């Protein structure tokens, strides 16, 4: 059978010095509520220097033993799966973007050039039509007389 023995810390067993009213800055009526503080530090300055030089990576590695192996394996599998999914998604996106951009250059640029050339032809035909209309407005009888004169010559010839 196991026997448990309570060992009291000397910090709590030492007698609290009784301050006089002259020594105390803030006096309270209830002395039991006053906290006893030990002015001697038990922490060495070497351990503080070690903590300051320790990197974040070293601290995370030290926490590895706190997490159970099953949880670590599950976390590792999740992170690995997520990174693989991200890599494959980025790889597929890059390849798809390459295919789309090269297709646009190979098919789109010649189509755009042909479309622009067709638009130029349509614009030239409109300009020629406008010039023909402007010439008819300036000399309205010339074309009509030429057309009538040609028609009269055909009528004046005897039929054979």
For the structure shown, list the relevant keywords.
5 helices, 160 residues, mainly alpha, single chain
Structural summary, described in words:
By secondary structure, this protein is an all-alpha fold. Helix content is 67%, strand content 0%. It is built from 5 helices and no strands. 0% of the residues are buried. One of its GO terms (cellular component) is mitochondrial outer membrane. It is a single-pass membrane protein. InterPro entries: Tom22.
Termini gap:
149 Å
The overall pLDDT, averaged over residues, is: 77
Largest sheet: none
Sum up the overall morphology in one term. Answer: rod-shaped
Which secondary structure elements does this structure contain, and how are they paired or packed?
Layout: H1 10-13, H2 45-53, H3 56-62, H4 69-138, H5 140-156
Helix pairs in contact: 4-5
